Amino acid sequence: MSDTASADGAASSASDTSFFGHPKGLAVLFFAEMWERFSFYGMRALLVLYLTQHFLFSDNESQGIYAAYASLVYLMPLIGGFIADRYLGPRKAVLIGAAFLVLGHFGMAFEGSGSKQYVTVGGVEREIIGEGRGENRRLFIDYEGDRRSVGFEAVGEGEAAETYIQIVDHKGTPERADDEVLASVPPAEYQLDTKREAPFVSILFLSLSLITVGVGFLKANISTIVGALYEPTDPRRDSGFTIFYMGINLGSLLATILCAWLGTEFGWAYGFGLAGFGMLAGLITFIVGKPWLEGRGEPKTPVKISWEAITWIGGAVALMPIYFLLRNDAIVSTALTFGAPAIFVGMLIYALTAFKAEERSRMIVAILLTAFSVVFWMLFEQAGSSLTLYASRNSDLTVFGDFKLTAASTNFFNPALIVLLAPVFAWGWTALEKRGLNPPVPVKFGLALLQVGLGFLVLVWGANAFAAEKEVDGQTVVLVPLLWLFLAYLLHTTGEICLSPVGLSMITKLSAPKVVGLMMGVWFLSSSLAHTLAGIIAKQTSSETVGGVVVDSAKQLQTYTEVFQSIGLIGIGVGVLVLVLSPFLTKGMAGVK
Q1: Mean pLDDT of the region 554-560
Q2: What is the rounded CA–CA span in Å between residue 102 and residue 276?
Q3: Which residue, 161, 195, 229, sits at the end of a domain?
Q4: How many CA atoms lie within 13 A of 482 on its CB side?
Q5: Are residues 142 and 277 located together in one domain of the fold?
């Protein structure tokens, strides 16, 4: 496609109002991304629970795997954006990514029979049988020829506390007073051993690798195509990205209800399998809707068949190092913790030396705001790890009467609130713009950071003031009313709306035209670093588990409140800093709003 044709296409976009006042190509991207996010978030809602309860990885291992996976998922768009900019164009890159994603999500449905854990007492080894998923998981053991429940008792206080394994006869009633403790074994007298099915562990990591490569090709480039639908000065751009962001969260909402429910109630394979069909629907939507894009996302010169073949082969070859990194998450954590800041510094030097005047100052502001967004996502992305486990272990999931959510389904709070509130914010930004009161992008970033930090402090307040002991199948657990988790997600969501769709739009507006794809990759690099840092934080909330069940509920809640309070204060502090700097950052945007 020639440069002239591209310019004509951009000009025609101003009169294209076929999709709620926006170009009809937005509809294709809206639904394609909706189904892609359906698959991604459907799997995400279940992943940490799946790792801890099906494969019986420890909290540290599970949250390390999750952090490495999420970090690589958001790192790969840096490469995918570069390949699209230089060779393929965004549309073909999205198509290749979608194909990898279909394979990866369907691969997650091959789960095997799960890992097995054994306890050895007095030289006798017995299997600990885990039944149920999420907060409904219960442990049993064959004891003297009968099936008995397995429970835990914390003996002692503080760091000196020890966890005794108890074998309990519930007498067929739920009352703890009727329980008979048949054996109570101190730590010095038992040994735990976990045995995993190696082939299915390999399938798990291969599937995660396929998804990682797929997202790398798709994620940055589909957002780039959204930006290409509009002229640089088109006032509909921000609201267009917000509508696109609604598609992301509509897919997430459906997934966290349907996939989470199926996976928890009927089996992991059902939840992951439905996520795979969602991704297949996204691929079909993108292929069928190609004419509506009217050439947006195509390279300036026709792509050679050899480059397409090299990209397919390269994606397949990339599975091997990604597989290795997922199984060795410490390497990812170390590399990103030191490497990502170096890339940000390198991009700043590049902006200072390769560009001039307003183009240079805009690039610098884009890079600085991207760096500040790391703190936001570092806190926000506790949702897929520590907050999901918090919901399973220390949140009373009762909504009303006998109706309860599952721990995985609490992930739906965020997308549900996005779907409800994003139109309000989109209308609000437009209304404020007409009155000259629309806050500049740096102010929105500062407000987002304040809200995500406040969300954790609200959660801590609820835990400190309203936590209560409750008997569940003879075990004492400490639970916090679900309202406080909801309020935390509400504040995180309003913060996200202030930052994320505006951030995507910011990259396309502030970046120099020749490096838009690369800068979109840098934007996702910030999420990659954030997920690594989020994993480090999540590991601080880890607790001792047996069979995927936490052994000391009260101690676990105390750990959550201590960590959540610390990161809540960090979010508020950085938010205040960004607000103080906002006049200088706004000036550096050189008239771009």
Answers
A1: 91
A2: 6
A3: 195
A4: 16
A5: no
The residues near 586 (Cβ < 8 Å, ≥ 6 apart) are 440, 441, 442, 443
* pTM (two decimals): 0.85
The answer on 462 and 381 residing in a single domain is yes
d(CA 123, CA 145): 17
Residue 269 lies in a domain: yes
Q: Do 215 and 167 lie in a common domain?
A: no
Task: Let me know: does 1 contact 299? Beta carbons within 8 Å.
Answer: yes
Q: CB of 543 within 8 A of CB of 449?
A: no
Tell me how crowded residue 215 is: count the other CB atoms within 10 A of its CB.
Answer: 26
Residue-wise burial string across 196-214, b where 16 or more C-beta atoms lie within 10 A, e elsewhere: bbeebeebbbbbbbbbbbb
What 3-state DSSP class applies to 355? coil
* CB-based contact 385:539 (threshold 8 Å): no
Mean pLDDT of 412-427: 86
| 224 close to 81: Cβ distance less than 8 angstroms | yes
The answer for residues whose C-beta is within 8 angstroms of residue 573's C-beta and 6 or more apart is 453
With beta carbons less than 8 A apart as the criterion, state whether 80 and 217 touch. yes
Number of folded domains that form the chain = 2
* Domain-embedded: residue 593: no
Strands 146-155, 162-169: pairing is antiparallel
**Residue 151 sits in the same domain as residue 87:** no
| Average pLDDT estimate for 400-407 | 86
CB atoms under 10 Å from CB of 86, counted, come to 12
390 CB-side CA count, 13 A: 32
User: Taking the CB of residue 102, how many other CB atoms lie within 10 A of it?
Assistant: 24
Which positions ≥6 away from 587 have C-beta within 8 Å? none
pLDDT of 38-58, one tens digit each? 888 888 889 999 999 999 999
Print the domain residue range for 150: 116-195
Domain containing 568 — which CATH number?
Answer: 1.20.1250.20
Domain edge (last residue) among 195, 222, 249: 195
Note whether 464 and 582 are same-domain residues.
Answer: yes
